């Protein structure tokens, strides 16, 4: 039991600077279009053709020559979408046309069906039209040669639709990061086993696995490892061999059984081992055989809060995103708050829209063991060090950690 | 080619009222805890035990009797987390203890290691403590018998962690909705085939599949069906047999090949067939053999916008969510906007935080064919009917359709 950690205490901005400096987006890979949702593009996409590729009717109606649109016109036939007939509109004639169909040669406008009357093969127009009316020119949406999407673009439904429209069935993207999860601690029992005296169920494995999935990454479960140096060393070797990033929970404090930091030092690069935050002071960031490694504290709230503040942005960096952090807002306190001013504290809160911006209500007792303080929370209040009391009505910064009602992942 | 739809034009609020009135959350099913992320709970969860189940030390330090904490104390041994020894603290003695370990019988406080000095089996305390100091009482986080989560709760990482902590390895939840997707239209060719004259690639299948996934649901691809009554009837039968909700795109306008509405009437209940919105006027909502059916317009933007505004909230209702709609904000226009005042219009926009709330910039030309108008858009401006011009600086309502940079699904 040491009195003082050998790791200097750094502030959270410095911690993030060291993380960011050590990480690069994952090497791009070619992926089928249907598997790109939520990934980011790693290439320019240039349109190889016009969309639409032809002059298309924007309405159901009649394709006509605009200058010729007064008298009754002979209807040559009907142009359906997808069924181009070899019709040519000449003065005195028109073609019945459906939305999306190719406007026939000769015609330069479409008169909407509401402004027409057809009888005995002749159509009468009740309004005149300008050339180009209700005709979508070729290339209106996308012109051949346009750069339609650039590297770093996150791919959602609209982007995927646009890529499909230009025939891009596979793309260079930053792949989905694989994240190995190790839980540690002799006091932890499997979730389906009743805890004995001094024991706790392994909630971290489930919570971290869900957090990794909600961040759009693939969890790789390494399992639960006892506080045994050889077993931990083997688990870490297995983890770095099978993932793009490794998380462990527990074993980073100063107790005799806190073996993670000494082990990480064996591989050489521990970037930091202590951060001036609460919860999460013993957070550790290292590289093991070139793979980034986060040693999270064992308390359930500490591990999820440090995941939110540091690991999730790191995973987004690996995934090629430009926007890494949760949005930050200013919120007004609905009640006074006290906190220990020795470290910056992330208090869990419900942010609700008020008359004057966001209103923040803390989710009860904020001890690190109390997972209920995170249940239903959609915000983390950032309470700076050096100030012990915040009054009702005071304004503080908050990270919007999206609630699953808003952010639903598979 | 009809001049006038037989369906009355209803406004979007009335359309949503009819949808909401016809839908119920999916029947609850029991699911393993690891598969519950993003689903909603369909049961009360009552804690069967206290968390922690024992008095736990909140610090590394020494377990003592608070009233006895002045003199040097004999150290009886060390209590590690997860390793409860049969130690009893009596006056004149103490037990070295690790964070999370059970506080031994007799002791009523823990003195942090920083305030102690140990030598020759005796520990000296540099500060006195109050009874209960640094001791987490049993049940501090969760007390046995507490209702810890209620029906309707969306399950994120914190909720899943809490359920694991109380040993709930399986739960009654509303299952993930399965959504059948049919695309229609003779003018549509597969994405990997160059479109001929009058033809377009099937971008809707990819875009709708991605939109369904991003909404946390499972897409069931029925395929692309030509404008043929028998083929469409067969596809719809197949779709309703395999999904909780059916989407089709195209075939809902008034052209001769728009076969979806007449077909839906064969099964009996078309709840509406026209909505006074742009894009999306021909949106159709029905039931087929008891399964809800959305007939979306064929234009790519129309199908995605009506998905956002009507289908996504409907899917969330099936999933048991209480919060169904995207958050709505007030935004200030960065430039003037014109729109056809005959219908309410959803214009695609970028919402960015400004000095005075949200600033809205429309994403270029808003024609329904132009998918690029949705690329990068994080908002839908709600421009009411009856007003043709909006000035720069005017304030309008907007739906926050989350960009994938924020909402990343698998």
Number of helices of chain A: 6
Shape of chain A: elongated
CATH architecture type of the largest domain in chain A? 3-Layer(aba) Sandwich
CATH class wording of the largest domain in chain A: Alpha Beta
CATH superfamily of the largest domain in chain A: MoaB/Mog-like domain
How does this model look, in words?
Two copies of one chain form a homodimer. With 410 residues, the first copy, chain A, is an alpha+beta fold. Chain A folds into four domains: 12-27 and 175-318, 3-Layer(aba) Sandwich (Molybdenum Cofactor Biosythetic Enzyme, Chain A), CATH 3.40.980; 30-50 and 140-174, Molybdopterin biosynthesis moea protein, domain 2 (Alpha-Beta Complex), CATH 3.90.105; 56-136, Molybdopterin biosynthesis moea protein, domain 3 (Molybdopterin biosynthesis moeA protein, domain 3), CATH 2.170.190.11; 328-400, Beta-clip (Beta Barrel), CATH 2.40.340. Chain A is built from six helices and 29 strands. Chain A has helices at 12-22, 157-165, 203-214, 229-242, 260-267, 300-318; strands spanning 29-32, 40-41, 45-46, 56-57, 61-64, 73-79, 93-97, 109-112, 116-119, 122-125, 135-136, 147-149, 170-174, 178-184, 188-189, 200-201, 218-225, 245-249, 269-272, 277-278, 284-288, 291-296, 328-333, 337-338, 344-354, 357-362, 379-383, 389-390, 395-400. In chain A, strands 8-5-7-6-10-9 form a six-stranded mixed β-sheet, with no helix packed on it. In chain A, strands 17-14-18-22-21-19 form a six-stranded mixed β-sheet, with helices on both faces. Chain A has a five-stranded mixed beta barrel with strand order 23-26-25-27-29. In chain A, α3 runs parallel beside α6. The longest helix of chain A is centred in the last third of the chain and has 19 residues, at 300-318. The first copy, chain A, is elongated, with a radius of gyration of 31 Å. Residues 403-410 of chain A have low confidence and may be disordered.
């Amino acid at each position: 039991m040491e009195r003082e950690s050998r790791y200097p205490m750094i502030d959270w901005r410095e911690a993030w600077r060291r993380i960011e400096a050590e990480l690069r987006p994952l090497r791009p890979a070619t992926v089928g279009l249907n598997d790109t949702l939520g990934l980011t593009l790693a290439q320019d996409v240039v349109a190889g053709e016009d969309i639409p590729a032809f002059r298309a009717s924007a309405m159901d109606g009649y394709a006509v020559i605009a200058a010729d649109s007064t008298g009754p016109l002979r209807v040559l036939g009907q142009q359906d979408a997808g069924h181009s007939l070899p019709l040519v509109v000449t003065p005195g004639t028109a073609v019945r046309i459906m939305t999306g169909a190719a406007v026939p040669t000769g015609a330069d406008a479409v008169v909407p069906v509401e402004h027409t009357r057809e009888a005995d093969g002749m159509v009468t127009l009740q309004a005149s039209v300008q050339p180009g009316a209700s005709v979508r020119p070729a290339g209106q949406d996308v012109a051949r040669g346009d750069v339609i999407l650039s590297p770093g673009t996150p791919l959602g439904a609209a982007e995927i639709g646009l890529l499909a429209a230009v025939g891009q069935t596979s793309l260079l993207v930053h792949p989905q990061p694989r994240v190995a999860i190790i839980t540690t601690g002799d006091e932890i029992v499997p979730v389906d086993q009743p805890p004995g005296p001094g024991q706790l169920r392994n909630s971290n494995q489930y919570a971290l696995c869900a957090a990794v999935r909600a961040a759009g990454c693939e969890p790789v479960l390494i399992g639960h490892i006892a506080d045994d140096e050889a077993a931990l060393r083997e688990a870490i070797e297995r983890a770095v061999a099978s993932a793009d990033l490794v998380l462990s929970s527990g074993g980073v404090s100063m107790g005799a059984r806190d073996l993670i930091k000494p082990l990480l030092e064996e591989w050489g690069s521990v970037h930091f081992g202590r951060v001036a935050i609460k919860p999460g002071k013993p957070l550790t960031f290292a590289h093991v055989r070139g793979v980034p490694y986060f040693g999270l504290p064992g308390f359930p709230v500490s591990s999820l809060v440090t995941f939110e503040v540091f690991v999730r942005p790191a995973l987004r960096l690996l995934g090629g995103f430009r926007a890494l952090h949760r949005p930050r807002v200013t919120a007004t306190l609905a009640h006074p708050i006290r906190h220990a001013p020795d470290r910056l504290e992330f208090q869990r809160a419900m942010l609700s829209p008020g008359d004057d911006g966001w209103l923040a209500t803390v989710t009860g007792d904020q001890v690190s063991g109390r997972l209920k303080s995170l249940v239903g929370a959609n915000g983390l209040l950032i309470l700076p060090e050096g100030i012990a009391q915040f009054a009702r009505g005071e304004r503080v910064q908050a990270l919007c950690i999206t609630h699953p009602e808003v952010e639903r992942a598979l």
